[in-house]
Amino acid sequence: MDWRGRRQSRNVEDRRGQPMRSAGGAGGVLLLLRFLPMLLRSKVGRAVLVLGVLVFFGARLLGIDLLQMVDGGAQTTTQPTREFTPQEQALAEFVAVVLADTEDTWNAIFTASGQRYQEPRLVLFSNRVNSACGTASSAVGPFYCPADNQVYLDLVFFQDLKSQLGAPGDFAQAYVIAHEVGHHVQNLMGISQKVRAASAGKNPRQVNALSVRQELQADCFAGVWGHNANNQQLLEPGDLEDALNAASAIGDDRLQRRAGQDVVPDSFTHGTSEQRMTWFTRGFESGDVGQCDSFSARL
Questions:
Q1: Torsion sign across C-alpha atoms 179, 182, 184, 186
Q2: pLDDT band at 173 (very low <50, low <70, confident <90, very high)
Q3: Do 68 and 76 touch, CB atoms closer than 8 A?
Q4: Distance separating alpha carbons of residues 292 and 44, to the nearest angstrom
Q5: Are 270 and 252 in contact (CB under 8 A)?
Q6: Which of 50, 69, 92, 182 is close enough to 221 for a disulfide, judged by CB 3.0 to 4.6 Å?
């Protein structure tokens, strides 16, 4: 991919090398709000409240964080991000460029349909991360959290994609980012909410089948972005093959075989290698969101 020197997104939050923050400070504020009505009902309570406010802001002026002291200090202090190698920094810049290009693509598509695209944030992390969807480790791979409209990515996954899954190349990595952004698009379009509603009360086999269709649509949306990236001369010879190789590498059937397991279609949640390549190609060749209705198509 010819990505160097292109615009980088401002929607990347780098948490690599930082410990996870506790919610202690927020808990202290919530506790205060809980007892606030009781304090306001008496003169003594109001006096204590005023005194507390004066002490708090006085301490802030002196550079003292009382919330940090109350909640254990070390748990809420964010340590400076460690120094990264040139290779690690280049990879982070690559992610920012790809995210920026997805922003251009989806802003244009939404605007053309009279809608406004809400750009997602992408959080880079190391080992473990807190999200509105819960705490996750790097082992889960890249994921999108609809509760906070953020994509989460540990860059170690790209090394695993290359060394363990046999899918190297810039565009293979870009496909992964574009797929997660595709889930964000589904969330904005209300598709994710419909899938959750349709899954209610269903058995595991039916829920998995809906999940497969949702994932294949995200693959198609990633292909739509790839179509636009190709028109913007972002792609180079061999890039499409890299993306298709990545789509194939993370097909449910291939992953089950790689783990030494029997292939069990009813347990699929993302689709077969062939399905994932097919739906990415469908979006890539058409550049048309209307071609990505995996819910009505015969799989």
A1: negative
A2: very high
A3: yes
A4: 64
A5: yes
A6: 182
- Specify the pTM: 0.80
Instruction: Give Cβ neighbours of residue 108 (< 8 Å, ≥ 6 apart).
Output: 228
Question: What pLDDT digit, counting tens, does each position of 186-213 carry?
Answer: 999 999 999 999 999 999 999 999 999 9
